[in-house]
Specification:
2 copies of one chain form a homodimer.
Chain A (H helix, E strand, L loop, with lengths): L8 H14 L2 H9 L5 E2 H8 L3 H13 L3 E6 L2 E6 L2 H15 L1
Helix pairs in contact in A: 3-4
The first copy, chain A, binds a DNA duplex through helix 4.
DNA sequence: TGAATATATGAATATCTGTTCATGTGATGA
DNA sequence: TCATCACATGAACAGATATTCATATATTCA
């Protein structure tokens, strides 16, 4: 936006949807938890002290928004962040809070 | 998070609150509209084709989160983004969408 | 094939959130 | 001081959303 034109309306709607995904503490905690290592669902649930079902539901949201990717290995499905972009968005937010 | 520890729990809650503010298209549109110039409330409302009341409510949310600041000049109150950090967060989101 | 384990999903519910309508507050100018 | 303009705010309502419970799906191993 610095020297760009205003974003198109539909881009702004997509953008709102993206930030909405970041705007939930459970999802943020999941993202931070798996940011440096792959983890299966139950391990995430235990790490956060939350139900497996809750985590699965939120992982689906994250998956649909391409913020995490998964890999099956036997009975378990390992999740991790999809790319470093995600980390950067979170870090930028933290910077704003801590400033 | 790159090489940091996991953010504290309370930081993550604050972070979720911050992203929640960005997760609404009306607020995003307001922020983009006033990103390069100060504007009074009615002008913003007209620019977006929305009611003055709606804009005022959302400006309050933005104010409370220190994303915009305001300045009274006579009967009008001019709003603009509080700092360039806000722009950067939005730009980072756009980059993610357009990638 | 059947039991056990890991994950996903659907339905239900309680809570939160954005918008609207009505009204309040503050500033200007006659 | 009164009318008008610009903005803020409270209440109410509709729509969205996160969690839970129950259950389904998929994989492994005996």
């Amino acid at each position: 936006m610095e020297n760009r034109n205003l974003p198109e309306l539909d881009v702004l709607f997509d953008l709102a949807d993206l930030f909405k995904v970041f705007g939930d503490s459970t999802r943020l905690r999941i993202m931070c938890t798996i940011s440096n290592e792959e983890m299966p669902v139950l391990a995430i649930a235990e790490a956060l002290g939350m139900e497996q079902s809750t985590i699965s539901h939120q992982l689906r949201v994250l998956r649909q928004n391409k913020l995490v990717r998964s890999r099956r290995e036997g009975k378990q499905i390992y999740y991790t962040l999809d790319d470093d972009h995600v980390k950067k968005i979170i870090e930028m937010g933290i910077d704003h809070i801590l400033e």
